[in-house]
Fold:
Amino acid sequence: MAQERSMAVTEFLSKAELIKQGAEARVYRTEFLGKPTIVKERFPKRYRHPALDEKLTHRRTVQEVRSILRCRKAGISTPVVYFVDYTSHCIFLEEIVGSVTVRDHIASAQQSGSRTESELEQLADRVGMILGRMHDEDVIHGDLTTSNMLLKRGPEDGEDELVLIDFGLSYNSALPEDKGVDLYVLEKAFLSTHPNTESLFEKLLKSYAASSKKSAAVVKKLDEVRLRGRKRSMVG
Amino acid sequence: MHLTHDLELFPDHRVTQLLFKDVKNAAELRQCAMKGEVNGALINPTMLVNPFQVLVAANKAVHLQTIGKMKTRSLYSEIIFNLSPTNKISEAFKRFGISDGDESVMVVLVHNKDEPQPLSDIIARVKGQQVAVEDVSSLSNNTKIQKLYKVTPQEERCGTLLDAVVCRMATKDVV
Structure:
């Protein structure tokens, strides 16, 4: 019976295009119910105890799906969930066609230098605003990096849309500490991936502070967490 | 006119949708459905935004049937239940199933793609005018849909009504 459960999806995925294999999940691209779809498959981890693996994988799947809906309700752009198979832990999501990760966008902008500083600043502004809104909803993303933010090409003269993805490590929390850590994770990822962008991140934080109603406590915690962080020299 | 789609996950299953307006015998159809004489799901199209919504519900229903975890007693009642944003079965039937005074009806069939479907049977049974399934949005009551699915105004800025509806349908069991 347990075998039969995943068969349909497993069979289907064998014909789909695998676009990424991570430690946690495999990501496929395919067509589902007539729409371009991304399937995120959290495969079983043999190195874990099976009971724990099932519990953890199920929880991550559920958290991801819940957080996506919470964000959407708050007006934060995320892919639409089409279908969830809890037996094989697969999430069928809307494929954001014609998008680039913010990571690639910044990287290419820095490389070609064709994009003005102000354009990247505008982007940082918008990211800060969206994160402010997300934290106001008490949603902690858990894995904030520029690879988990997509820029979707908008209509001709319309604005590109910022879409947040990968809510697998997300959870609910009102604590400024958790939000501070969320931002810290982003800061670390941001500065290590995109060299010489300290001022850009500052802009992001400014925008975050302006748009989030509870930001003061969060920024304070962020400063504390920075002091705590790894590889801090304790030399007076 | 009618719309068919083969479920990608269940290749033998084909979903056919037929839409009728100016229906005069909704009460009779409902009675037949209750008695189990209709081999299809009768849905109130004013609650539908797009045929995709039906496909999402049908796909989930077939999936649950395959693993033996349906919440209702039949595939067709499961499709109707899946359309609802809540987990109350009776409420789903009330809102998404057809009522006696309804003037339009969407018939959804799930069948084996190799078996010829007696569509003419169904068409003859419904005393109304068959219209293109794609036109269902012209029958939608967006205000009622927004209200029932509790779609927030911010949500409508970042996506369509269909996005909001489908997302809730897909996630309602864990929210």
